[in-house]
User: Fold this.
Amino acid sequence: MNYRELGNTGLKVSEIGMGCEGFAEDECRNAKRLFDEAEKQGINYFDLYASNPQVRAAVGKALEGRRNKFYIQSHICSVWKKGQYKRTRNIAEVREGMEEMLALLKTDYIDVGMIHYVDSMKDWQEIAEGPVLAYAKELKEKGIIRHIGLSSHNPQVALEAVKSGNIEVLMFSVNPCYDLQPASEDVEELWAEKNYEGHLVNMDPERQELYEVCQRSGVGITVMKAFGGGDLLDEKLSPAGRALTVNQCIHYALTRPAAASVLVGAHSVEQLRESIAYESASAEEKDYAPAFASFPKISWEGHCMYCSHCAPCPKKIDVASVTKFLNLAKAQGTVPETVREHYEVLPHHAGECIRCGACETRCPFGVPVTENMREAAKIFGK
Assistant:
């Protein structure tokens, strides 16, 4: 298992994490099976948005004797009322739900406390100016949650939250179809067939900006919906008109700036192992570029996907990394010190480019690589 820094939190998290969808199955007995396999395979991070007390109790039981082996990302505004899940901003309900969660999980702290499901700007403003964010900060001061997070499907809202400086971890839906869609306060728009009827070109600029701002700001991204609820794995259901593999979906998510862990939804140990197999998959098995280039209604012409098809460079320049740092600097309008430091430690720099053009002949998306190298050399000074 490979591990990544979760933004500036100091946590090193497994790049394959667990979603909680499968915990409730087989009368919650599946939770222990999944945690047993996770521990065996080196997974140390999971999400728990589910508020069902039976699920939380099953997770608490599964964690007995190994709480310190897992980082818990759990949601402080997801509660159980009248026998069903409820997203709430009522501070009394939020407090009660938090106390119940800790008791059921048999722990006295949560590593990442997620402000749950914030998809409208009005909702975020009420959270930021009201008692919910204040309560999250209170919990952090007391050490009950170690880091404050927020989950969202809306890049506008997520960007506003990240720029506020109050959010350390963002849980966000990342996959190559959703990334084409503009911001919306209705999460169902990400699935709507009408939004995929035309010819879609390139990533939505607000989503690109969100990933880059998170990278610059040290906000780690934990990925949900990497498989689009499973639709991307089925040609008949995929909005792209082609099926992707598990490895391709995970690799796409993990090549976005700031992405640290993909929270895979596994309904069985076998499904969890299928996602974990990403760690030993070949570069060819992870490669999403040929599939993307074949999508009938979607294209990324001229847009670097960080797929590394441009390699190998005769001067050994890591073109994908240079381009990523170039995009971060361009989005900022200046060169943040952290971006400069990451660029500096690259073994080879854009100024070494000899304009041979071999990279451009291999790029599936027609990216002007040599021009990007020229621009990077000018911006970074080497």
